[in-house]
Specification:
The protein is an alpha+beta fold and about 425 residues long. Helix content is about 55%, strand content about 10%.
């Protein structure tokens, strides 16, 4: 495959996100709908798919101490700036939060249960009329903007079943059409200067990690660091990763570099690799190549599991990407990386997602631990054999099988998780 196509896919998937991307997506939708109509807000209606609703349900809205779908929607309309995309709330002020608290009776959130893939629809009614926005497939992919039923902007829904793209974009279909050896050829031979931009994610995510070490969230990253000696890159990787997620899910006013629509995915696919690079004094080029591998494997699995699902994509999909990158940095080649992925598929596939909240850092820690274990096993030629569980003769089919566990495998599980979360919140 043309390496420029792969590079463009990576560039499009790398998007700065302010806070967890699900409340950020809701905020973007209401910010854009309000931008279309303006005026004094009378009421706001937001319709989302169950997965997005679940992920934002108990998540802190960035830059505030508030949480949940309702506050994200209100703050997007009151003080959001849609021109910043998933960072639309980055200029929110305390007065906006106070105003939002007085308007909780003006917001209504509904579920669109029978939709496929990510869906957010915002309807903002003001004294000027009605502004409406729809986001599909990706957290920042606005496909419709209306003002009083007049279309201001529209593009084709990428998940329309009459559209040949179906569940995948053209770019993503090309990723899943690649063999692992093709992926490795790209990683090993692409000109470093063409992928140097991947290091931007390191700078952004490391700042979140440093913020998390102040003790934000449950403080897991800080706790791990206390028992980490100078040369222990595994514990250091866990600390970097968990502290960044601690900061992110607790509403730290800093962006993460997302991948496949998730900041947590972006953190897990990069910071464990940075830990090895720093402790082993490796150069930036090999770090960038390992990130490329980590990102591509994550993208591959997410194309089958879906952007949002019942399993923890951070630990499973991003963790598997990280495991491949870890193996690469530890000297593994094609065979070892293939075996690393098999080991990951046999370990934590199926871990459930209960939305974006404090528990994310615990699950991320499990994913990072599994990633290092899988890579070290593979380096020592220890691997789960083919035809054991979901491990296929084909590594590409094995990655597809990881995704299949989530979609369609855990569709009913996802519904029950959401039901339980709603019950627990009462």
């Amino acid at each position: 495959m043309d390496e420029n196509i792969i590079i463009n896919i990576l560039k499009k998937e790398m998007v700065p996100g302010f806070g967890v991307t699900e409340p950020a997506s809701i905020a973007l939708s209401t910010a854009k709908a309000y931008e279309a109509i303006g005026g004094e807000i009378k009421n706001i209606e937001v319709i989302t798919d169950p997965g997005l609703f679940k992920n934002a349900f108990s998540c802190t809205v960035p830059g505030t101490k508030e949480f949940g779908n309702e506050m994200a929607a209100l703050l997007g309309a009151i003080g959001g700036d849609a021109s910043f995309g998933l960072e639309s709330l980055r200029k929110i002020k305390e007065k906006d939060v106070k105003k939002a608290k007085t308007m909780v009776d003006k917001i209504n959130i509904e579920l669109k249960s029978e939709t496929e893939g990510l869906y957010v629809e915002a309807i903002v009614t003001t004294n000027n009329g009605v502004g409406r926005t729809i986001i599909r497939y990706k957290h920042d992919n606005i496909i419709l903007v209306e003002k009083n039923d007049k279309v201001l902007y529209q593009k084709e829904d990428p998940l329309n079943r009459n559209n040949e793209l179906s569940r995948k974009t053209v770019n993503s279909k090309k990723i899943t059409g690649m063999k692992l050896d093709e992926i490795m050829h790209f990683v090993n031979t692409v000109n470093y200067k063409k992928i140097e931009f991947l290091l931007e994610s390191i700078k952004m995510n490391k700042k979140l990690s440093e913020k998390g070490l102040e003790g934000l969230g449950i403080g897991l990253g800080k706790l791990i660091l206390e028992s980490c000696d100078e040369n222990n890159y595994e514990l250091y990787a866990e600390s970097l990763t968990c502290s960044a997620i601690d900061a992110r899910v607790s509403g730290a006013a800093l962006p993460a570099m997302t991948i496949t629509g998730s900041g947590n995915h972006g953190i897990i696919t990069t910071l464990p690799l940075l830990a090895i690079k720093e402790k082993k004094n490796l150069n930036n080029e090999i770090l960038a190549r390992s990130i490329a591998l980590s990102y591509i494997i994550n993208i591959y699995i997410k194309e089958y599991s879906g952007k949002l699902s019942a399993f923890c994509g951070c630990a499973v999909a991003a963790g598997t990407g990280a495991s491949a990158g870890i193996c690469y940095l530890l000297g593994g080649g094609l065979k070892e990386i293939e075996n690393t992925i098999k080991n990951m598929a046999s370990n934590i596939t199926g871990m459930i997602c209960t939305g974006g909240n404090s528990a994310c850092s615990l699950k991320a820690n499990t994913g990072v631990k599994a990633a290092f274990l899988s890579a070290k096993m593979a380096i020592k030629n220890i691997v789960i054999p083919n035809k054991c569980g979901i491990v296929s003769d084909s590594i590409e089919t094995t990655m597809k099988n990881i995704g299949r566990i989530a979609y369609p495998g855990m569709i009913e599980t996802d519904k029950e998780i959401l039901n339980i979360m709603i019950e627990c919140s009462k």
